[in-house]
């Protein structure tokens, strides 16, 4: 048996859970240092994952979630003196503070956009207003994450509305799909959420119902030229009045 | 309001449409992707995005994963632990781990769903090895799991199913019981009535054939 093949079998036994505890722990450590071994393990996991979907779902009691929540430390820790009344409760609610902070950011951004348009382009508003706008939304939370504006002269820009967290070694990639036969095309690559021009010069003019999407990809962009990472925000263009 | 279809599902529709009559080899990867239902790729995208938000410290994202996958995770753990209370314990431990390790999730090293199911399986195996399978709650022999039932639930189109079906019955059963029901070498020897050495060799040879078949 070749060393390569031996490694592949070792990876499979690790995935099956057949290694004794010490060997298992050693294999676990090896994952972070040995890229080849990590790839073998990922391939076996992906193959065997098909079995996970064959399990009958068993609905856990709601109590299980309450225990998980308590363990996360998100259950608001009881302060020495619990304040009463709506305001102190809101002030002590992390969620409420986050919403307040986020609303502030969005309002500021919106104001900045409005101010910019008003002051800098007052005379040429008619000429410069976007012909199409897409609001990119997080499917799960329905939260708007970015706006795409397409102008009559072909210029297309993206303005983020939230500070999208980009883990180290990752990039945000913006895609558009105007033709299903051709598939999605990359139109922008960012290391962090910031307003940017999108590169659609070589693509046909932006039209109504054109899909835009932001995905999380390896640093430098998707290696396949197609979206591979999770979809963070997506939306389709609509014509402005 | 309907969520807008992502590129993934659109690609699948295209692939499905084009595989109808033509040469299947031409379509390759996209045809394989089309085998997955669009439901599954949507689920994968949702779970993946939720993990990214967990990494950013958004606790509501963990609840999203819980709503999408907790029941299936308990189901996976029950097959290994055969006790509902222990399976819920494993699921609890798995969610704690997902929350703490969300930052270490790397989309380039496999799917998001495979990541969370690996975690719940590992938690279940840890509990199993700690509790000892042959405790007082051991069900009668007649209740022992049947390897074929999980295999027959794999989609007909599944490469794993196709390749496992090529193996000798003993090798196939040993591998399925190990993954699906968490059997150790020793437990497999007891269950299948073979010496430990034979079981180890069945597994290794079975995995070698599987590796060649899966490519």
What's the structural blueprint in terms of helices and strands?
The complex is a heterodimer of chains A (241) and B (215).
Chain A: H1 3-16, H2 21-33, H3 35-48, H4 62-72, H5 86-92, H6 94-120, H7 125-128, E1 132-137, E2 144-150, E3 156-160, E4 170-177, E5 185-190, E6 196-198, E7 211-218, E8 231-239
Antiparallel strand pairs in A: 1-2, 1-8, 2-3, 3-6, 4-5, 4-7, 7-8
Helix pairs in contact in A: 1-3, 2-3
Chain B: H1 7-19, H2 24-27, H3 29-35, H4 38-55, H5 59-81, H6 84-101, H7 112-131, H8 147-153, H9 159-165, H10 169-181, H11 185-192, H12 196-214
Helix pairs in contact in B: 1-3, 4-5, 5-6, 5-7, 6-7, 8-10, 9-12, 10-12, 11-12
Structure in words:
- The complex is a heterodimer of chains A (241) and B (215).
- Chain A has 241 residues and is an alpha+beta fold.
- Chain A has three domains: 3-50, no CATH class; 99-129; 130-239, Sandwich (Immunoglobulin-like), CATH 2.60.40.
- Chain A has helices spanning 3-16, 21-33, 35-48, 62-72, 86-92, 94-120, 125-128, and strands at 132-137, 144-150, 156-160, 170-177, 185-190, 196-198, 211-218, 231-239.
- In chain A, strands 5-4-7-8-1-2-3-6 form an eight-stranded antiparallel beta sheet, with no helix packed on it.
- In chain A, a hairpin with a 5-residue loop joins strand 2 (144-150) and strand 3 (156-160).
- Chain A is globular and about 70 Å long.
- The N and C termini of chain A lie far apart (69 Å).
- In chain B, 73% of the residues lie in helices and 0% in strands.
- Chain B has 215 residues and is mostly helical.
- At the A-B interface, helix 1, helix 3, helix 4, strand 7 and strand 8 of A face helix 1, helix 4, helix 5, helix 6 and helix 7 of B.
């Amino acid at each position: 048996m070749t060393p390569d093949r031996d490694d592949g079998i070792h990876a499979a036994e690790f995935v099956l859970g057949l290694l004794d505890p010490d060997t298992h722990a050693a294999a676990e450590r090896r994952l972070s240092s040995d890229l080849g071994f990590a790839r073998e393990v990922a391939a076996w996991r992906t193959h065997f994952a098909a079995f996970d979907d064959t399990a009958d779902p068993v609905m856990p009691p709601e109590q299980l979630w309450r225990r998980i929540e308590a363990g996360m430390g998100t259950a608001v820790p009881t302060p020495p003196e619990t304040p009463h009344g709506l305001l102190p409760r809101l002030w002590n609610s992390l969620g409420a503070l986050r919403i307040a902070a986020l609303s502030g950011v969005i309002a500021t951004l919106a104001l900045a956009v409005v101010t910019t348009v008003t002051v800098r382009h007052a005379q040429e508003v008619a000429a410069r207003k976007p012909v199409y706008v897409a609001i990119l939304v997080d499917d799960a939370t329905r939260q708007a994450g970015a706006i795409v504006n397409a102008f009559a002269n072909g210029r297309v820009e993206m303005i983020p509305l939230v500070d999208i967290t980009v883990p180290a070694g990752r990039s945000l990639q913006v895609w558009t799909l105007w033709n299903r036969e051709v598939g999605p095309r990359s139109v922008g690559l960012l290391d962090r959420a910031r307003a940017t021009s999108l590169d659609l010069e070589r693509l046909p003019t932006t039209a109504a119902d054109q899909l835009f999407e932001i995905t999380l990809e390896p640093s430098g962009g998707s290696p396949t030229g197609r979206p591979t990472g999770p979809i963070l925000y997506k939306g389709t263009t609509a014509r402005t009045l | 309001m309907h969520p807008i279809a992502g590129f993934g599902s659109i690609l699948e529709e295209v692939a499905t449409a084009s595989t109808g009559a033509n040469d299947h080899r031409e379509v390759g990867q996209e045809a394989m992707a089309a085998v997955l239902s669009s439901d599954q790729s949507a689920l994968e995208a949702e779970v993946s995005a939720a993990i990214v938000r967990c990494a950013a410290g958004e606790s509501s994202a963990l609840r999203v994963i819980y709503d999408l996958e907790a029941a299936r995770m308990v189901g996976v753990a029950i097959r290994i632990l055969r006790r509902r209370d222990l399976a819920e314990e494993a699921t609890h431990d798995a969610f704690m781990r997902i929350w703490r390790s969300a930052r270490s999730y790397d989309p380039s090293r496999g799917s998001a769903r495979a990541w969370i199911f690996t975690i719940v399986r590992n938690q279940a195996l840890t509990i199993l090895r700690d509790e000892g399978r042959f405790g007082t709650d051991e069900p009668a022999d007649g209740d022992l799991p049947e390897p074929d039932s999980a295999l027959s639930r794999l989609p007909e189109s599944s490469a794993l199913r196709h390749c496992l079906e090529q193996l000798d019955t003993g090798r196939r059963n040993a591998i399925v019981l190990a993954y699906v029901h968490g059997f150790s070498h020793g437990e497999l020897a007891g269950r299948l009535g073979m010496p430990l050495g034979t079981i180890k060799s069945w597994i290794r040879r079975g995995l070698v054939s599987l590796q060649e078949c899966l490519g």
